[in-house]
Design goal:
With 451 residues, the chain is of the alpha/beta class. It has helices at residues 2-14, 34-46, 123-134, 147-159, 188-201, 214-226, 240-246, 274-283, 287-300, 308-316, 328-350, 370-381, 387-402; strands at residues 50-59, 64-74, 77-82, 91-94, 99-102, 104-109, 137-142, 166-175, 182-184, 205-208, 230-233, 250-252, 303-305, 419-422, 436-441, 444-448. It folds into two domains: 2-101 and 408-448, Roll (Urease, subunit C, domain 1); 104-402, Metal-dependent hydrolases (TIM Barrel), CATH 3.20.20.140. Helix 3 links the parallel strand 6 and strand 7 (137-142). Mean pLDDT is 86; it is low at 1-37.
Length: 451
């Protein structure tokens, strides 16, 4: 089991073939680096098992507690859960009175610092990654400004587990009108060529942006799937219903919903700012049309990562210098848009739709890790989710979005040992996610806040 887990980890985060039982999309072929194999073999041989004794395991899939339970970790894998006898050389950690959950997953993390040297060895990047882990986020889908950074960060995360979450790398932005941080292309043929280039880098997801037509999006999806990759992004150039029909795997933000229901040319010129357009679009989206759109998502299996927290931040804080201030009425409209989006996401989840947790940090000044905890709170307080439903979205459902639910997202035997130990019950109160006592990343204690 240990060797299967090692292969699975390196496959999922470095783009290599997976071991037995790996879920999700196919993986790029090619030999594992010798240094990676040696590193993991030495660790499996030298590090003792870990036994978490007497805690309460949270079954996030069913929203129930398993009290007075031991969790045995060997290598990077959960080996056994129940009444477990400690192996002779085990590191026994008493977690009586604490709650054990799988690590949180942030599917929309811009974890590449804008300032810095642009490599995975950047001290600023290390600070960001450590902040994520310290708040209980053990896996991210990294949406970098440079695809090269994303690939190198995934390799770094596969070995530096003491400070980094697992990294599933996406591309920098794909769109037909290039910007400073995007990859521009003129036609579907060039879009396909860019996708092939990303596959060679080890990228696992292609991110598309607003300037996009259907032929180009279709070509990107086809090329991505031929490499075992997936496609996520905005749905404004190609509305979300059409993107779903074309086979896009995941749509991002609450901004991607209204363009499928309200024609862009119907938005009055006075509503020129992003905040105003979001508020106007959601105010004029009919409930029945929203429900039908979610039905289209479910029909085609497209996930939605609403990133409520970034728009909520926009509504509750003053805009950056140089941007127009919002009136009280505009701010109230934007708050209402976030509330409707949160309610829709929860209803979609309850109807069997796939909703994942994402934040968009550091946009709007959002903080790594803390913003993921805030996204869970908004699903509960604005969307009407139970804490159990919101926790499922942040863990097992987000693992499903990645196609990695065979190895991530739940605390079960055979899963990777990415665990968070909390001092309070997260099924009673979503704010319990802030009461982090300990974080275990691939079987190693990386955060320990015990007195």
């Amino acid at each position: 089991m240990i060797w299967t887990a090692l292969l699975t980890l390196l496959a999922g985060f470095m783009g290599q073939p997976a071991g037995p039982g790996q879920g999700g999309p196919g993986r790029r072929s090619g030999p594992l680096p010798a240094w990676a194999i040696q590193s993991w073999m030495m660790r499996a041989q030298l590090e003792p098992p870990v036994l978490l004794a007497g805690g309460t395991v949270v079954d996030v899939r069913h929203g129930v507690l398993i009290p007075d339970t031991d969790v045995l970790i060997i290598g990077d894998t959960i080996r056994e859960i129940g009444a477990v006898e400690a192996p002779p050389n085990a590191n026994v950690i008493d977690v009586t009175g604490s709650y054990i959950i799988p690590g949180l997953i942030d599917l929309h993390a811009h974890a590449q610092p804008i300032r810095g040297n642009g490599t995975a060895n950047d001290p600023l990047a290390e600070q960001v990654m450590h902040a994520l882990v310290s708040h209980g986020v053990t896996t991210i889908r990294l949406l970098p400004y440079s695809s090269e950074f994303g690939a190198s960060a995934a390799g770094r995360a596969a070995t530096d587990t003491r400070a980094w979450p697992g990294v599933v790398p996406a591309s920098s932005i794909f769109e037909q009108t290039p910007q400073r941080t995007s990859l521009g292309f003129g036609d579907a043929g060039m879009a396909r060529a860019w996708t092939d280039r990303e596959a060679a880098l080890g990228t696992r997801w292609i991110k598309v942006y607003n300037a996009m037509d259907e032929p180009s999006l279709g070509a990107i999806i086809e090329a991505a799937e031929s490499h075992g990759m997936r496609v996520c992004g905005h749905a404004e150039g190609v509305p979300a219903d059409r993107a779903a029909a074309l086979g896009m795997h995941c749509v991002e933000h609450i901004t991607s919903i209204p363009p499928a229901l309200v024609p862009e040319d119907a938005v009055p010129p006075a509503f020129a700012t992003l905040a105003a357009r979001i508020a106007w679009g959601w105010a004029h989206a009919d409930d029945a049309d929203l429900d039908a759109l979610m039905g289209t998502f479910r029909e085609h299996g497209m996930a939605w990562v609403p990133t409520l927290v970034v728009t909520h931040q926009m509504a509750e804080h003053e805009p950056r210098p140089g941007l127009p201030a919002m009136t009280d009425a505009e701010r109230a409209s934007l708050r209402d848009a976030v509330r409707r989006a949160a309610e829709l996401a929860v209803e979609h989840h309850r109807a069997g739709g796939l909703v994942g947790l994402g934040t968009d940090f550091p946009v709007g000044g959002l903080k790594p890790g803390a913003s993921a905890q805030e996204e869970v709170r908004l699903l509960v307080e604005l969307g009407g989710a139970t804490p159990a439903e919101a926790l499922a979205i942040a863990t097992v459902e987000s693992a499903r979005v990645l196609g990695l639910d065979a190895t991530l997202g739940t605390a079960e035997p055979g899963k990777l040992a990415d665990l968070v130990i909390l001092d309070r019950n997260p099924l009673e109160d979503a704010s319990a996610l802030q009461a982090v006592r300990m974080v275990i990343r691939l079987g190693r204690v990386v955060v320990d806040e015990q007195p």
